[in-house]
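Table S2 (text version). Query chain:
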Amino acid sequence: MTQSPVELLGLLRSCVQLAGLSAVGELATTFEPQGASVVLILEESHVALHIWTESSKIAVDIHVCDYYQNNFHKAKRLTELLAIALTHNHNSVYWSYLLATG
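Corresponding structure-token output:
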């Protein structure tokens, strides 16, 4: 994973849009000697990517609110799109889901 934070933001923006979610803000930072975090603030909540390039690891946080509408399927679609974009593999078997209903 050698993408710059700017490239990662572009990838994240594209996946968010394809999933039907709406980005309203963003932030990217790099860490020395390696690594990056990028965050998109969504109308529905937020999504963040944390990259550890030295060990080829990625953590993805996807949070969506369902106050006005059920966004679970959009979040699931975003998971699929990011799995393909980041690993070139559609299988998200190593992803963990937490769904809270009230």
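Notes on Table S2: The mean pLDDT is 85. The chain is about 30% helix and 30% strand.
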